[in-house]
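WP5 quarterly update. Target: Heat-inducible transcription repressor HrcA. Source organism: Allgaiera indica. Length: 361 aa.
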Amino acid sequence: MQENASRKMEGSKILAELNDRSREVFRRVVEGYLSTGDPVGSRSLTRTMSEKVSAATIRNVMQDLEYLGLLDSPHVSAGRVPTQRGLRMFVDGLLEVGTLTEDDREKIDATLGVNQRDVGSMLDRVGSALSGLTHGASLVLAPKHEAPIRHIEFVSLAPDRALVVLVMADGHVENRVFAPPAGMTPSAMREAANFVNSLAEGRTISDLRTSFTHEINARRREIDALAADLVESGLAVWEDKDGHHERLIVRGRANLLEGAPEAEELDRIRSLFDDLERKRDIAEFLELTEEGEGVRIFIGSENKLFSLSGSSLVVSPYMNADRKIIGAVGVIGPTRLNYGRIVPIVDYTAQLVGKLISDRG
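Structure tokens (predicted):
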């Protein structure tokens, strides 16, 4: 939080020190780059500036902005592109966020208005809608299911595979396949299920972690050691060491390949795909939103979730009826995202998802 505030203060100070001409040149270079992805030259700016100035004057201004670390020259040509620092300053101080268009609103509403009882399917459609509207890759972090447990069952599928069936009090059912301890018998399966159900009813999975550890240690003599191992192995399917079991939904990755013919750009996208496939540090995706409500923008290396430098993430949390952050939605793409249009889309989608989940109770 302190780092973000310091960065914004620094950006505001630099903007305040720029004269009107320098500020306009900087803004038009960034807007031109975000629109086309190409370097912006001084000659093209002479046709759009509010005052009549020569290309030589604009080139001098560009050189000054480059010296400040706000612009860069990617090639020998005179065209300039914004640096990551420049993009950050533009987003913090000059970005004009548009309003959600009626067409975008209707498409989002239509996507979420079908089969609202199934949260998983709804969030899948949210991801598809976001990627379609923004032409980027969408990320949706689904909330972990925390309803009280009604019943748990272990079913043997093969010597090295077992199925654990979890029935929640709200009727939600989850089935997971896992590897049981070697030598598991049908009687041990029944014994393990009886032991779990004697403790589980009315509690959530996260509530049970400490209780099971204590009970297994205290009652080791009463239950077969294999049954104890089965309990621990089966419940580990739902719980990692931190008690998280969120699901990251990724849609629209093919959109990132469009307009990226250069080998360097393709290598960056492949690196991003690798991160998306591994879905590592999923919890960080939610942590990115913990500094308060609203949309946050991460540019390039500011985005700690992915190793790829040169991508941007626009993300917003969604909340339940108790105003607790339970998930997040976002869009990832190149740094030249249309931030002014994408921000209201992500913001509206997050608010709508939170409302629908809250309405379901």
